[in-house]
Design brief:
Blueprint lengths: L5 H7 L2 H13 L3 H14 L4 H13 L3 H14 L4 H13 L3 H14 L4 H14 L2 H14 L4 H13 L3 H12 L9
Length: 187
């Protein structure tokens, strides 16, 4: 089977298989291939929120902010309670330097899904960029309440506390982060 034959075979394949392949390609950083497969799914079912969310993430990774926002908006239109779509939209706003809009979208995502760890991490980063360090500390601390083993978050919190002059709290956070490993990655 030649490489040229492969896409036509995938068009006939089960949408679940194509979606699984697109997710694997996305995780591997093969964004163009993941987009190709997602677009096949999108043409079959333009209302599938999982496909819309993945397309938003792919376009964000490829620095195509307008397209990322477009697919986030489509996902929100299909499911206004999809916290991940608001978080993706927040990422676009943050990247554009529109911090108020980013923070609003992250907070909205968290109002929908209070245990959404990525939402707290994204919110904390936007709050730091906006200069609201105390609120960022609270966002990081909340993420750690849901998963205390997040080394990177604990380390970021420790560094933020140190920058705020809260050295004893920073020592505790950094000591705890040294006992775990960094295996958490943002999308």
């Amino acid at each position: 089977m030649s490489v040229m034959e492969r896409p036509s075979i995938l068009r006939l394949a089960d949408p679940a298989r194509i979606a699984e392949l697109a997710h694997r390609e996305y995780q591997a950083g093969e964004y163009e291939r993941a987009e190709l497969h997602c677009m096949q799914l999108f043409h079959q079912d333009p209302e599938n929120t999982s496909t819309l969310l993945l397309l938003s993430s792919i376009h964000f990774q490829c620095r195509r902010m307008e397209r990322s926002a477009y697919f986030s908006h489509l996902a929100i239109k299909q499911n206004p309670l999809m916290a991940e779509a608001y978080s993706n939209l927040g990422n676009v706003f943050k990247e554009r330097g529109q911090l108020k809009e980013a923070i609003d979208n992250y907070r909205h995502a968290l109002s929908i899904k209070p245990d959404f760890i990525d939402g707290y991490i994204n919110l904390a980063a936007a709050l730091v960029a906006a200069g609201d360090m105390e609120s960022a500390v609270n966002a990081y601390a909340t993420a750690l309440q849901y998963n205390p083993d997040l080394y990177c978050v604990r380390s970021d919190l420790g560094n933020l506390l140190k920058a705020l002059g809260r050295l004893n709290e920073a020592k505790v956070s950094n000591h705890l982060s040294a006992s775990t490993r960094c295996d958490y990655r943002l999308p």
